Amino acid sequence: MPIDSIWTYAPGLSGVPEQDLTDFTVVASDGTIGHVDRQADHHGMRHLVVDTGVWVFGRSVLVPVGLVTGVHPGERRVTVSCSRAEVKAAPRFQTDSETMDPDYLTAVGDYYHRLPAREEPAS
Question: Name one GO biological process term (predicted).
Answer without folding.
Answer: photosynthesis, light reaction
